[in-house]
């Protein structure tokens, strides 16, 4: 049995990966470590509780005591998903980003130096490149992060690279594009727009909505990570993309159309500072290893919309309380209006 640590496994991609890996790798025994921040949700893992190959540890990747105790018992693989992940929150205040995304990664790498592992996957992001300049980014393009979140992820990558070069930690760095699917916290574009549309609330679109992202289904993202743990070269960086570039405005239209809601729900709001206009990746390096994304966007989006439609008890409570305060700060009162007030405005 291989002993596998998944950090941040109560969040969106980490929880999907925990489910995916347990189903796909019968010889893996998984420990999920998660601090359960606002973005971590034990409900994402509850169906795994009876699985003898799964256990949950509540803890912080920046806490050396917790980390050392896990590594000292012997780990084969580490998948580090744990992070503060939302760009807008990093623009509001980046302290937690530095603590988790940089110092937390340092804590993990220090432990991997002391108690060697077979593979250490640092889950990073295409945001480290910044906005596309001439052509889609290859892995050897210079990094030029535009927001504090992206900068914290770039710093973590630099540490992973340094620990590979200096101490031989078998780090592999993945840079994936915008990921979507079930169980994504409703602060990110797709789940926010789906849940707002389901509630009849406005869809707050930054600027004119012509920014472009490459949308990757979370199952394709998880499958790419399994492929890389088997085939990637340690010390290397791998882009993960879906060749599925869409304007934010078009995403908003698709969601409204599928939910039978009017286009008038789209509400242009003040643009994000430092907003990257366009992300695009050259994924030839990963393709050469025999991987490609399989899930067509139309199907992936339709299934994702269906998931949110059928799980209001998952996302409904997340949109009240502390999130409602964040939402009001981020978007202002007009967009924040509860649905009954908005009906009068439209
Ligand atoms: P998420 O915000 O949904 O989940 C993050 C998880 O990490 C949460 O469960 C949270 O509780 C946990 N966490 C935060 N700080 C922690 C700490 N100090 N110790 C332990 N756990 C902690 O994020 P996500 O969208 O699932 O992203 C997962 C990873 O993938 C991140 O590293 C992110 O940078 C990267 N990534 C995300 C995307 C995307 O589109 N969502 C794309 C590329 C890369
Ligand atoms: O590219 C990978 C990155 O994708 C990950 O590293 C991040 O963790 C993840 O959050 C995501 O970052 P983005 O900033 O691209 O995702 P977000 O969903 O916040 O925004 C997607 C696009 O939609 C972006 O151009 C901003 C725009 N947007 C977003 C929100 C939340 C809006 O127009 N309105 C919104 O309310």
Question: What does this entry look like structurally?
Answer:
This protein has 13 helices and 12 strands. The chain is an alpha/beta fold and 346 residues long. It has a domain at 2-180 and 214-240: Rossmann fold. It has a 7-stranded parallel β-sheet with strand order 3-2-1-4-5-6-10, sandwiched between helices. A 3-stranded mixed β-sheet has the order 7-9-11. A two-stranded parallel ribbon has the order 8-12. The longest helix is centred in the first third of the chain and has 20 residues, at 95-114. The site of nicotinamide-adenine-dinucleotide has 31 residues, from helix 1, strand 2, helix 4, strand 5 and strand 7.
| CATH architecture designation of the domain at 2-180 and 214-240 | 3-Layer(aba) Sandwich
CATH superfamily of the domain at 2-180 and 214-240: NAD(P)-binding Rossmann-like Domain
Alpha-carbon Rg, integer:
20 Å
Query: Kindly, what is the distance between the CA atoms of the first and last residues, rounded to a whole number of angstroms?
Result: 58 Å
Major sheet summary line: 7 strands, parallel
CATH uppermost class of the domain at 2-180 and 214-240: Alpha Beta
Mean pLDDT: 95
Question: Order of SSEs, N→C?
Answer: EHEEHEHHEHEEHEEHEEHEHHHHH
Sequence of strands across the biggest β-sheet: 3-2-1-4-5-6-10
Give me the CATH fold name of the domain at 2-180 and 214-240: Rossmann fold
Helix content: 40-55%
Number of helices: 13
**Total count of strands:** 12
Structural class: alpha/beta
What fraction strand?
Answer: 15-25%
Cofactors and ligands present? Answer: nicotinamide-adenine-dinucleotide, 2'deoxy-thymidine-5'-diphospho-alpha-D-glucose
